[in-house]
Amino acid sequence: MAILYALVARGSIVLAEFTATSTNASAIARQILEKIPGNNDSNVSYSQDRYIFHVKRTDGLTVLCMADETAGRRIPFAFLEDIHQRFVRTYGRAAITAQAYAMNDEFSRVLSQQMEYYSSDPNADRINRLKGEMSQASLENLALFVRNVMIENIDKVLDRGDRLELLVDKTVNMQGNTFRFRKQARRFRNTVWWRNVKLTAALIVVILVIIYVILAFVCHGLALPSCL
To answer: Which keywords label this protein (predicted)?
Structure first.
């Protein structure tokens, strides 16, 4: 799974979050929320080991996700943009005064579903680049900041003394590989099944034609027109 963890926060107050595997990403994400400089809108990424924390802050609302470095930037930031729009559309100004985890029960399910979609569905990237819910202007802005955003080491945000080592359950990669294997195996079985159906149908047709020819030949040889 490419995207392993995500949250939505107002300042340092987490409103909703979801993690797809056993990890202490939540603790590190809170450190990032507390140490991100300024209150202006920003889009930034911080690397740690082979994982990257992508952060999008817009109008005081912060959406953050942790993804495998192989996921690149376009898909994680498309995910963040999607989550931001869904959250604002669902809760609007209620997010301004909401208490910690006020939206977690409901919105954590949205985070889970969209994390799975952006991590596993090959259409996710294409849809969000060409015909997603975002406007053309939003797509252009997304492409611009994804090209320009600098991936900084997390040490530049967190003091070395405060830094937590990132712990991620390695089985998450196995789960992702298992998902892809099952999908490929299912596709292969379907292909083989249809091939067998076509071969069986063709064989039945050939047998029927042979039987018809034999019967026609025998009836003609016996001079029995009624047989035909």
So the answer is: Coiled coil, Membrane, Protein transport, Signal, Transmembrane, Transmembrane helix, Transport
The full DSSP string for 97-160 is HPPTTTTHHHHHHHHHHHHHHHHH-THHHHHHHHTSSS-HHHHHHHHHHHHH--EEEGGGTS-T
Is residue 165 scored above 60 in pLDDT?
no
Q: What is the DSSP letter of 168?
A: B
Taken as a whole, the chain contains a residue count of 228
Confidence check: pLDDT of 162 > 70 = no
Answer yes or no: are the C-beta atoms of 108 and 14 closer than 8 Å: no
What the block records as the tokens of 106 is 């409901």
Helix (H) or strand (E) holding 203: helix 171-221
3-class DSSP state of 92: coil
Collapsing DSSP to helix, strand or coil, 223 comes out as coil
Residue 67 parent element (H or E): strand 61-68
What is this structure's pTM? 0.60
Between CA 161 and CA 49 the distance in angstroms is: 17
Mind giving me the DSSP string for 21-50?
SSBSHHHHHHHHHHH---SS-EEEEEEETT
In angstroms and rounded to an integer, the radius of gyration of the C-alpha atoms of the chain is 28
What six digits make up the tokens of 151? 């991936």
Q: Which residues contact 34 (CB under 8 A, 6 or more apart)?
A: 12
Measure CA 82 to chain center.
Answer: 11
